[in-house]
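Feature request disguised as a bug report, sorry. It would help if multi-protein outputs had a clear separator. Right now it looks like this:
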Amino acid sequence: MRVLQPCSTQQTGFALKRIQRGFTIVELIAVITIIGLLAAVAGPKFIGNATFETRGAQGTLLAALRYAQKTAVAQRRVVYLNLNTATRAICLGYNSSCSSAVIDPATQAAYSKTLPASVTLGTTQATLGFDGLGRPVPNANATYSVQNAMDLSESPRTIVVEAETGYVR
């Protein structure tokens, strides 16, 4: 009578030797985890962080505009945002020169932010106020643009403050 052998074995001498094909699930998970960690840590260094800084600068400017508007509504008084495009500095104050500063809730100091050097800024209103109803002062559309200075082919990110309503988008 003839005995059938499994196809994954091979007879060599007196012992049966098992042929391995592929990887175990543990080996596959370990390799995928290592590749994922390398991609998360080393990937941004190959891409460059100027794009991330541009997005962050847009977010910082957007947050400052919205905070100025909400502070003006909450305190029923005019709050100004002053943007210096040369130094990329943002400050909030109760007058247009920011000498009477709004307090930053995160630091409990004067609200002042400096955007990264890898961005350039453009604006139609370097000094913009919000009245107690959240409307812009002067009552006109204001546009802010944040551009990646390292890669000019990237389109600028634009923030618009609507006249009359003060809607920040």
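(second protein starts here, but nothing in the output says so)
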Amino acid sequence: MSTAPFTPAGTTPPPDLDNYFARALIKLQKEYVQNETQPTARAAATMAVLRKADPGKVDTSPSTWSVLYSAFPEDFFGNRDEITARERAAHAALVLYAVHQTSQPKPLHQSGIRLGQALRRLSVSQDEKNPVPPRLTSLIAASTFDATMYHLRGLMSLLRREGIPLDHISLYRDLVRLQNPRNASRVRRQWGRDYFASPAQETDNSSIDIAATSTAITPQTHA
């Protein structure tokens, strides 16, 4: 039986290697959210184990190993002593999904909604004491993977409370790239861009208004 090649920590896997994680996540969601009926006993137990773990801390949560390693082929992570980037990212992403999805009757993994975009939707649902901007600032400023996971876990709880979906496969890819010093700043910058960017319709309207205003206030020249 062929297995996927080993990728050292800090490198980004080819997109096809992400499919193992994607299949595991989608299967878990289907078992946990079945047309808004009760989850299967297996899915409920899996989610309970995951949400009690610290995201990314593989060695301190052996109760999650059956969930993590059963999703990937034998020797997928290699035989080295250190935890690989994909291994740590997959563990973290599964735990964060469990924190996000638990007790919600509708599926909260939804393709195409990046982290910053989901947080922007969350901000819209808040009152004047919006907790998202300072939490996002802390997330982006986090200097270690563990600190990043601490802030992400808190944000997942806020997203769950409002029932706002997120693309957890995209988040998994972000967490792989975050462990590469050459890519970490790009990942954080994209989170900020997606959060602070105006929706397309608003941007178009603003452009029209600015153009109109500019024309109105252009001083006239006299011969």
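Even a blank line would do. Unrelated, but nice: The chain is about 60% helix and 0% strand.
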